[in-house]
Amino acid sequence: MLTAVVAAVASSLCCIGPLLYLLFGVSAASLSGLAQLGWLHYPMLLLSIGLIALGFWRLYFSRRPLCSGRFNRTRMLILYWLAVPIVLAFQLYPYVLPWLLEKFE
User: Fold this and answer.
1) Which of 7, 28, 69, 84 is the most buried (most CB within 10 A)?
2) Under a CB-based contact definition with an 8 Å cutoff, are residues 87 and 5 in contact?
C-alpha cells in the first residue's frame, strides 16, 4: 500500500508542487523544472492502479494468508481503505482540479 501511495504521489508530482507553492504564496522559478517529470505520469498511474488491485486481490481473494506479525486482517483492511482515497486523490488531481476551477469560475 505504501508503494501505491508513493506511485500516486509521483504521478502527480509535476502538478502538485507548484500548487502547494501557490497556496502558500511562495513563488519559485525553480519549480518549472518539475514539468520535466511529466513523462512519469502515466507509468506511475499504471503502477499505483496495479498495486491497489494487487492489494485488493491479496486481501479478499488470495488463498495465502497475509504475512504480517504486527497487523491482523481487520487492521489491514482499515489501512487499505484509508489508503485508497489518498491514492485516488493524487491520481485524479490533475484532471479534477481544472474541471472544478472551470465549474466554479
Assistant:
1) 7
2) yes
The whole-angstrom separation of Cα 50 and Cα 48 is 5
User: How confident is the model over 36-79, as pLDDT tens digits?
Assistant: 767 877 888 888 899 899 889 988 888 776 666 777 888 888 88
Cell 492489494 belongs to 55
Distance of CA 104 to the CA centre of its chain: 25
How would DSSP label each residue in 28-95? -GGGGGGGGGGGGHHHHHHHHHHHHHHHHHHHHT-SSPP--SS--HHHHHHHHHHHHHHHHHHHHHHH
Q: Encode pLDDT of 69-104 as tens digits.
A: 777 888 888 888 998 998 888 888 778 878 888 888
- For residues 7 and 86, the answer to whether their CB atoms sit within 8 Å is no
